[in-house]
Design goal:
Number of strands: 20
Shape: globular
CATH class of one domain: Alpha Beta
Strand content: 25-35%
Number of helices: 11
Helix content: 25-40%
Structural class: alpha+beta
Distance between the termini: 42 Å
Length: 386
């Protein structure tokens, strides 16, 4: 039986690109299929509205793939502290970085994807096309593209996002729910400098995050009920800046400027068994978490790294790296972290955004956690995606 590639990766977002790069680096012949156009080269003009808080583990993967130095040379914002509070900033749960390593790095979506795409090397990239039909079994997978071409590989990696058409085609079931919330994102200029600190306030209507950018501004992610989100999106710039300043408790003083706002719906999604013979789902196609911990992309990048390592180890041992047994080993390795992050983000959302009395009690509890070494270390590890 002939194959056009060892692995077909469906989805050219951040996680799909990282998976393709990691698998190619491990020696697999990879073909990536992406429905959109290839990402544009990073120009370094206006800061992208969509940013990620990358954990040390994610940066280690990007460094291993040989692209972190180029990303760091372009534009990143390391943050060396984190503050999380409910009512008063002086009651915040605070994390500080070690002297030789930041807690994380804020990186733009467009910069990250451009670097991953440019790193492709020998693996094949097909953009502006989709998979219209799949035929997967224990011996491999065949796909038909929208332009009529057919390809066959040992394994299909499904990384085509939270509404994954391929997951539906393959009969991979998911569970989850909408939060009836939207997240507003924008970049803001504040009266006081951010000082390289990531901040998050838990409001009764949802969390507000202020992430430090390299140019001195902050990227905000303001999650709130749909009705409030619609109200905030309808405000003029001056009125929105006033509301944002109040919501942040003036922790950085007045908000003096704001880019145009964007918003997106929030939900939870979990795929308990993200595999069928010949295919496995990763990234947002396998799990979607509330953005309050900023860990969605870090979970996906960990998927990519673990999948490449698992398949490479199986091949080195002479086992069928594409077989269900190998894929089940990958799923077992990723299940605990994924379920823990789903539970933690959903639990924090419900605790702080639900009963007001419980929220106040938990808010006071943050200052207690701040004084408890082992418990604080646990929260710090989860906040960093470790």
């Amino acid at each position: 039986m002939s194959f056009d590639a060892d692995v077909i990766v469906a989805g050219g977002g951040t996680v799909g690109l990282a998976a393709a790069a990691a698998l190619a680096q491990a020696g697999f012949a990879v073909t990536l299929i992406e429905r959109a156009a290839a990402p544009a080269a990073f120009e370094g003009g206006e800061v992208d509205a969509r940013v990620y808080a990358l954990s040390p583990a994610s940066v280690h993967l990007l460094d291993t793939l040989g692209i972190w130095s180029a990303i760091a040379a372009a534009r990143i914002s390391p943050y060396r502290g984190m503050q999380v509070w409910h009512q008063q900033p002086d009651e915040a749960l605070r994390f500080d970085a070690l002297p030789d390593q930041p807690l994380g790095w804020i990186v733009e979506h467009s910069l990250l994807n451009a670097a991953l795409w440019a790193q492709a090397g020998e693996w094949q990239r097909l953009s502006k096309t989709t998979i219209t039909e799949t035929r997967a079994d224990e011996d491999g997978v065949g796909v038909t593209l929208a332009d009529g071409r057919s390809l066959r590989a040992r394994l299909l990696v499904v990384a085509d996002g939270p509404d994954s058409p391929l997951r539906e085609q393959l009969g991979i079931d998911s569970i989850g729910w909408d939060y009836a919330q939207r997240a507003l994102v924008a970049h803001v200029t504040t009266e006081k400098p951010h000082g390289g600190i990531a901040r998050q306030r838990f409001l009764p209507t949802g969390p507000l995050a202020l992430l430090p950018l390299a140019d001195g501004r902050c990227s905000i992610v303001w999650s709130c009920h749909t009705t409030l989100a619609d109200e905030l999106m309808a405000l003029d710039d001056a009125a929105f800046r006033l509301r944002l300043g109040t919501a942040s408790g003036q922790v950085l003083g007045a908000v003096t400027a704001c880019t145009p706002r964007q918003s997106f719906a929030l939900r939870l999604k979990h795929v308990p068994a993200p595999l069928v013979p010949g295919a496995v789902a990763i990234g947002d196609a396998a799990h979607v978490v509330h953005p309050l911990a900023g860990q969605g992309v870090n979970l996906g990048l960990a998927d990519a790294a673990t999948l490449a390592a698992t398949l490479a180890a199986a091949r080195a041992d002479g086992r069928g790296w594409w077989r269900a047994r190998t894929l089940q080993s990958y799923v077992r390795q990723r299940s605990a972290e994924t379920v823990e992050m789903l539970a933690m983000t959903d639990g924090l959302h419900r605790a702080f955004g639900g009963d007001a009395l419980l929220g106040r009690a938990l808010g006071r509890g943050l200052s207690t956690v701040n004084r408890a070494g082992p418990l604080k270390q646990w929260f710090a590890a989860r906040a960093q995606g470790a």
